[in-house]
Amino acid sequence: MRLDALLARETARFGAEHPRSVAMAAEASAVWRGGAPMHWMGDWASPSPIFAERGEGARLIDVDGRAYDDFCLGDTPSMFGHGQPAVAAAAAQRLNQGAGFMLPTADAVTVGRLLAERFGLPLWQAAVTASDANRAVIRWARAVTERPVILVFDGCYHGMVEDCLVTLKDGATAMKAGLVGQVHDMTATTRVVPFNDLVALEAALEPGDVAAVLAEPVMTNCGMILPEPGFHDALRRLTRAAGTLLILDETHTLSSGSGGYVRAHGLAPDMFVVGKAIAGGIPAAVWGVTAELSARMDAAQARIGPGQSGIGTTLAGNALALAAIKTMLAEVMTEAAYARMEAGAERLAAGLSGVIARQGLAWSVVRVGARVELVFADPAPKNAAEMRKALDPDLLAALHLWLINRGVLIAPFHNMMLVSPDTADAAIDRLVEAVDGFGAALKDLAA
């Protein structure tokens, strides 16, 4: 049986087992362009979107009554589990009192203190999404340094931020393929280098025109790519020497520990961004800065003068979001929760490694805290160019649909899996068993 035959069989199985989702997808196509409220919802391997009914901890139930072990968790917003009782109670209370006033509430003081204690930067601002936060820090970096260029790593994704919609092509910075309505050539003000390539990084900083390096501590958006030993020390040393600010986007690597990857590994960014899970799924993000940089921001603002900064949206820092962030930081994102997540991720990584060994597959497992990636390459790639060769779209689609049909959800983009504090060992074992079955099916294809 060829891979396309396996996909056809799994596609037929999905249709038979998900009649209400299939019917709702047809109805939604009449009122939602692309058949869903946001087009990413159609990017799963299933032939039509799964319509969710509810989430309970680390489980998701669809409109057909089918239950899934959820290792996607909304692609991170529900990293600590669906339907957190403490967040639900805080949100309900806040909604009864008013969700937003474009004025701070008492929670603002508490949240600011909690953020400073947890992540180590003293001064904070709120945004609605990490995309918004990244736009803000990029603007501030350019204002403070009076430099035009932003540097990012090949394969990055920092939200819907135009400056970052670039890639490496034939060794040069290029616009990503498929961009809609793009009129500005971002290659004039954004530079791209491979992750883990310190020689390329130093050369890119050498002209002295780079305002900031914007990076995830671990690349998570083109398959997970770990930093090589010494990379972050060198990144910090080189940016300081060049007068370039360092921005770390922890929207995904918040899975690394209660203080994120920054605190777990003793990193020292000038700016820090985190979104998605920080408010338990309620749209919110925050960004923090050092005291030294805050003083430079004040000086830049005084130099620029009054007017419109171009930074901020009406819903940023609203009362509902702050109530949720406070509850997450104080009651949900605890050391005990992270300990459970770490233990579960360790079990998952070990189980997947066992499958690879038993099946004789040329795959590998990458883990960052509670986040685990199954990579179709061995050894695991060290940069995006290597990772792209491993991201076989047909193999990815077959694995994802195989897992969906066996009651397991992982993130629809590559093979990233996330363990929540509510994820049971039995769920982890079911995921491992399903991957094992897929590996055996692949061996049958090759026979």
From TrEMBL:
Keywords: Aminotransferase, Pyridoxal phosphate, Transferase. PANTHER family: GLUTAMATE-1-SEMIALDEHYDE 2,1-AMINOMUTASE, GLUTAMATE-1-SEMIALDEHYDE 2,1-AMINOMUTASE 1, CHLOROPLASTIC-RELATED. It comes from the Bacteria. GO terms for molecular function: transaminase activity. Pfam families: Aminotran_3. The keyword Transferase applies. Its cofactor is pyridoxal 5'-phosphate. The keyword Transferase applies. SUPFAM superfamilies: PLP-dependent transferases. Belongs to the class-III pyridoxal-phosphate-dependent aminotransferase family. This is Aspartate aminotransferase family protein.
